[in-house]
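Protocol step 4 of 5: obtain the predicted structure for the target chain.
Materials: sequence only (see below). No template structures provided, no constraints applied. The aim of this step is simply to have a reference model before the mutagenesis design in step 5. Sequence pasted as it appears in the construct record:
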Amino acid sequence: MKICVWGDELAGWIAAAQLASYGNDIIKAGSALAPAESAIRIEPGLMAQIEHNVADGRIRSSEEADPFSAEVHWLAIGPGELDAASEIVTHLAAVHQGSLLVINQSNLGTGASDALQDRLDTEKNQHVVYLPDMLQGGQAMRQFAHPEVMLVGCESDSARTMFTALMRPFTREGTEVRLMSRREAEFTKFAITGMLALRLGYINELAMLADHVGVDIETVRDGMSTDQRVGPYYLSPGCGFGGQHFTQYIEGLAGLLSKTRGSTLLETVLKQNEQHKELPFRKLWQHYHCDLGGRRIAVWGLAFKPGVATVENAPSLRVVDALLAQGATVHLHDPEALEDFRFHYGDHEQLVYCDKPYEAVDNADALLLLTAWPEYWSPNYTELHRLMREPVIVDGRNVYDPQLLHDLGFTYYGVGRSSH
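Step 4 output (structure tokens):
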């Protein structure tokens, strides 16, 4: 099939790479064929697959081929850009006299796919299918290629047949396909994201309480996970969640709940999450008796989660802002997100960007761990203790063992854990 992919969201690049690998002719509209965004470049396997398909001519730019000549159009544009999506679909309706399939994988809000459908002619077999973006950064290639479940908003038999044929390479090995209306699929995506946010918010609130009552939240979490009604997922306490899309979905559902039901449940979760992002700073600030002026603080992990290169809404932004306001010098390390962090702050006189993690902790008064990248999990503790001026560790992701660090001579602060 000839498919035009619109937008520079990760989901669009994944779709282009994977669909091209199964013989489809992909036209990438309005962007370069070698995406410069670091978040896309570090997605395992993505760039290699794009470059391979470009070399073989299966992915072409809109400068090489007419994007409106495609029979299938895949929308993966930025969150909230409904006007841009409407403009694309309106033009498609004007130039196509025959059948047309539009697959919307954008975060445009509940009812947006129906609004796009209204711009097409169903009598000409022109239809919109909504495919929720369930892809997670760092795992997106695998999740697209081997989905366990696929939620599909589709209200036309002919559109379903064409969509099923297009996705058959990825669903033929037992994928469960759940069909529903477009609006129901959009709402389901909101509902899933909201539930995950509630779980994260709840475990973080429990962690705060655990600090006060003298229990280890990690032991409590393990106990909670044994109940099948609860399970282990999204129950890892830490210094808050981030990411552009995850947060925007929650904000969208929070706004809808507030407007239609007067509910402030998710608004409360978002507000508490913003406060929770500063928890590592507050623990450090209290340790040094509310005076961090002139202190040298190391930060490991800037990305909002491991496996991505963006700091969008990351706890690191709130923590570093607070440290700078207190007059501390901050030495930063992240395996992938240093460039994006530097874009946010520039060459600030109180910030030092470090290529290696141990460079950041040299002569530091404390180490703050904010992102649980794999390379931070088992450091050389002897070397850490030797390098640091004060062996203080604030573990924002509960990566380390408090008793081990205490035995090695460190002062340790976790999230809802015993500190020494």
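Step 4 remarks: The domain at 188-275 is CATH 1.10.1040.10 (N-(1-d-carboxylethyl)-l-norvaline Dehydrogenase; domain 2). The CA atoms of residues 192 and 250 lie 10 Å apart.
Proceed to step 5.
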